[in-house]
Amino acid sequence: MIEPALLGGVALGTLTWGVYAPNSRLFGPVIGRGPHRPTAYLTLDDGPNPGVTESILEILEQEHVPATFFMVGKYVERYPETALAVAMAGHEIGNHTYSHTKLHRLGPQRTAEEIRSTHDIIQRVTGRVAQSFRAPHGYRTPFVSRAIAPYHYRTFGWTFGVWDTTRPGAEVIRRRVRQHLRPGAILLLHDGDGYAQNGDRWQTAQALRGIIADIRSAGFDLEPLSSLGRQDG
């Protein structure tokens, strides 16, 4: 007979994993990696961020690389021209909530409002309908699944991040990407700061051209997240 305390511990561990693991499927489907082939997917969170985002857009245009920008609603409102520039450049835009709050701390009503308001703001500012969602820090609950259901979003986690938010230096960021690159990798970078206006992400922008060069030197293609089928991940 299994002890109740042991069962409780297993249940708590499973719930904790479901909340905090960005690619856990406990609370609904999530894509954390593409198919096992030499392809990588570039994603940038927490913008738009004037200056940095435009610099990144310029590099992406010059290198002919697609990316997905998971945008924070309050920054789309604050910097509409930068958000629109992303859309006009043809890159994909995803919903990253309105205030970049940790969703596991919210109830159903506030969770739904964080997602609904951002969906509406992105559409109003950019003319685009967001097709994807990424939770801040990857933290999710059953409330998140219900909140995104009306928009038919695909939820994305990531294969690896490189802690570019700690600003370790452009060369360190580049090296970390090179070390962790693997087939089908969804790469998490940041063009903004979810908690601070005009967050300093210049090191990420400075590392980007080298990151792209390293990915290509490894024989990988760079594709948009939309190229992933519904069954992938």
Average pLDDT value?
93
What string, H for helix and E for strand, traces the elements in order? HEHEHHEHEHEEHEHE
Strand content: 5-15%
Shape summary:
globular
Proportion of residues in helical segments:
40-55%
> Which stretches are poorly predicted, pLDDT < 50 over at least 5 residues?
none
Q: What is the count of β-strands? A: 8
- Major sheet summary line: 6 strands, parallel
Distance between the termini: 37 Å
Tally of separate helices:
8
Radius of gyration: 18 Å
Structural class category = alpha/beta
Write a structural description.
The protein has 233 residues and is α/β, with parallel strands linked by helices. It has helices spanning 4-20, 52-63, 73-78, 80-88, 108-126, 142-148, 170-180, 202-217, and strands at 39-45, 68-71, 92-95, 132-133, 154-155, 160-161, 185-190, 221-222. The strands form 2 sheets. Strands 1, 2, 3, 6, 7 and 8 form a 6-stranded parallel beta sheet that branches. The chain has a two-stranded parallel sheet with strand order 4-5. α2 runs parallel beside α8 and α5 runs parallel beside α6. The longest helix is centred in the middle third of the chain and has 19 residues, at 108-126.
